[in-house]
Amino acid sequence: xxxxxxxxxxxxxxxxxxxxxxxxxxxxxxxxxxxxxxxxxxxxxxxxxxxxxxxxxxxxxxxxxxxxxxxxxxxxxxxxxxxxxxxxxxxxxxxxxxxxxxxxxxxxxxxxxxxxxxxxxxxxxxxxxxxxxxxxxxxxxxxxxxxxxxxxxxxxxxxxxxxxxxxxxxxxxxxxxxxxxxxxxxxxxxxxxxxxxxxxxxxxxxxxxxxxxxxxxxxxxxxxxxxxxxxxxxxxxxxxxxxxxxxxxxxxxxxxxxxxxxxxxxxxxxxxxxxxxxxxxxxxxxxxxxxxxxxx
Length: 296
Ligand SMILES: [Zn+2]
Ligand SMILES: [Zn+2]
Known about the structure:
Elements: E1 9-15, E2 29-34, E3 37-41, H1 47-53, E4 61-65, H2 71-74, H3 77-87, E5 97-100, H4 104-114, H5 116-124, E6 135-138, E7 144-147, E8 150-159, E9 162-172, E10 175-179, H6 187-193, E11 198-204, H7 217-227, E12 232-238, H8 244-251, E13 259-261, E14 267-270, H9 283-288
Parallel strand pairs: 3-4, 4-5, 5-6, 10-11, 11-12, 12-13
Antiparallel strand pairs: 1-2, 1-14, 2-3, 7-8, 8-9, 9-10
This protein binds zinc ion (2 copies).
């Protein structure tokens, strides 16, 4: 069993793509790791594979926060539930909690029903009865949860016709990270993103994808500038094939702070860094700092 990642204390992109299959960009996923334990925001297509590439295993994941139930955000959640349970044959694990909007309980219940044959076979071989069933907490705007060193707050976003889609704010000490989930521009996200140390925002390039329920890259730049985001990550890239400079050129029309175009396994924060600044020691931000611009 993989037992790596004990030294990891930071935030990494797992998947930075969309439903379109792309060997370089998995479906949505971000991991917050500390002391050998982890929580995920979204668990899309291939996110578990990326987690393994970081040297971590499913047994180390204590919580998953689902933004919404599109396949590029939840496709690997059934796999996580199952392989984590299989890993419990090596010894009891802390419970897995899945947080998400209404419909999450049904999704997890359907997962367990889909794997009834697998579950029955492994129970017959002695895997602990009941441990396969995660705790499910359906959350709405303003709900808060504490996982390890992180306090997570859900907030509404607008991904209509998905009726209930969430973004999440993650606080650890004074550092505040906001993950947009999938959304068109909306005031609730703008309020949460105001002054955020780190904003991971979905981005769509004009002429691609479904513009009615996503956010164009220029609008991401406008938002980040207007509400004073301190660092910006463009992720959930539609399409995932454009050069970084194309994205940066569009976002920099409005936002002059540090911005990076996400890629899978990119590290965004590091709490093991000397000096206590979880962002200062992360290489991506050194490159992202615009020259000659006073960010304060
Ligand atoms: Zn979506
Ligand atoms: Zn999506």
